[in-house]
Amino acid sequence: MYTGRTVLDEGWVLVRGGRIAALGSGRPPADAAVTARAFDLDGRALLPGLIDLHAHGALGCDTMDADRDCLHTMAAFYAQHGATRFLAATMSAEAPAIQAALRAVAEVRAEGTGGAILEGVHLEGPYLDRDHAGAQAACALRGAQASEYLPLLDTGVVRIVTLAPEIPENRALIAEARGRGIIVSMGHTGANYERACEAVELGVTHVTHVYNAMPPLHHREPGAVAAALLQGALTCEIIADLVHVHPAMLSLAWRLKGPDRLALVTDAMAGTGVPDGTYALGGRPVRVEGGIARGANGALAGSTLTMERALANMAAAIREPLQAILPAATRVPARALGLQAGEIAVGLAGDLVVLSASGEVDLTAVSGQIVWER
Questions:
Q1: For strand 206-207 and strand 183-186, is the pairing parallel, antiparallel, or unpaired?
Q2: Annotated active-site residue in 52, 65, 267, 351
Q3: Could you tell me the residue ranges of all domains in the chain?
Q4: Among 41, 90, 241, 250, which residue's CB has the most CB atoms within a 10 Å radius?
Q5: What is the CATH number of domain 49-341?
Q6: Is 276 annotated as catalytic?
Q7: Can you tell me the mean pLDDT for 195-213?
Q8: Angstrom distance (rounded) from CA 341 to CA 42
Q9: Considering only CA atoms, which of 168, 216, 210 is closest in space to residue 186?
């Protein structure tokens, strides 16, 4: 049992009313077996539910479809791969299209998904730098205007907003978002080191897929990457699919940010969980070949990564055991969103994942309810 703080070779957990009521080492007490439905995991591993702060889609579905059924499909798929909570990520587009996606998220969040809990939206754009658009539509990028972003924030579902802090118009959005308790993340940015550090002083606390969609680390022009890795106030997302980031750079991020300031994310797009082919990311065509997604301009366009694979990839790349990596997929994102989750501890959400010896997800429970069982 990986609690997120320690590892028990043999242990038990009791979930009641959606929360962890008790846990311990060894065999469970006799009265617990009488009052609860019992599962013998028979040598498998028990983990806290994984939390994905940045997921665009799966199984042919995309957040920007603004479709409730698509969001349910995504939530069910993510649960099959160990994610118990997630943020649906948008793409840069005109305001009505983004507003429609946010309304769909609000409806599904209110009614529940039956799979991973939809905690809200990661608003990725459109307030980004055109020179670092990546797979975002450069023609849709613009500086933030209150007349546009206030209605988006008023939906109440935006939990993270990604922006380029060097764009002057975006400063007011940083202040507005922080005032509402929304995480402000720098990403798709060309900010130099000084401007990136200044953004931290303005209230930026997060970095969207560090290394990607920003100038590379340079010894005379350290840029946003150096600020992301050196500023202790910043939590960095990282895509550990071994395509977006080389294993050596995964190790560098781990050494500088450690288990408390690194968050594993999938950046999963519609081509996740389905065969290679052409899919949409925010309405733009993306070709998936060999599991690697690229837009028409050749830029990486999201990933086909799942959370349990992100854990395994990261552990293998940096040669650390699972218990060392686990907080980056559990406690760190839970803390960022202010959730009572991310660990196996009394009083926290009964979000649990069972892994087989080969690392596959055999069972996922969300708030004590089994939503996936192999």
A1: parallel
A2: 267
A3: 49-341
A4: 90
A5: 3.20.20.140
A6: no
A7: 98
A8: 25
A9: 210
Question: Collapsing DSSP states into helix, strand and coil, what is residue 229?
Answer: helix
User: Would you say residue 28 has pLDDT above 90?
Assistant: no
- Residue found by looking up tokens 């690194």 in the block: 262
Pick the closest to residue 372 from 91, 362, 241 (CA basis). 362
Checking if the pLDDT of 53 tops 80, the result is yes
What type of residue is 276?
D
Looking at the predicted structure, is the pLDDT value of residue 306 above 90? yes
- The pLDDT assigned to 331 comes to 97
Question: Residue 31: pLDDT above 80?
Answer: no
Q: Are the C-beta atoms of residues 187 and 128 closer than 8 Å to each other?
A: yes
Of the candidates 227, 192, 233, 193, which has an alpha carbon nearest to the alpha carbon of residue 210? Answer: 227
The reported pLDDT for the residue numbered 373 is 96
- Tokens 């846990």 appear where? 23
Buried b (16+ CB within 10 A) or exposed e, 141-159: bbbbeeebbeebbebebbb
| Cross-strand pairs, 51 | 85
**DSSP secondary structure letter of residue 64:** G
Helix (H) / strand (E) element for 15: namely: strand 11-16
This prediction has a pTM of: 0.97
Measure the CA angle with vertex 78, ends 74 and 80; round to 5°: 120
The residue type at 260? D
Distances (CA, A) of 35 to 24, 31, 32, 38, 46: 17, 6, 5, 9, 21
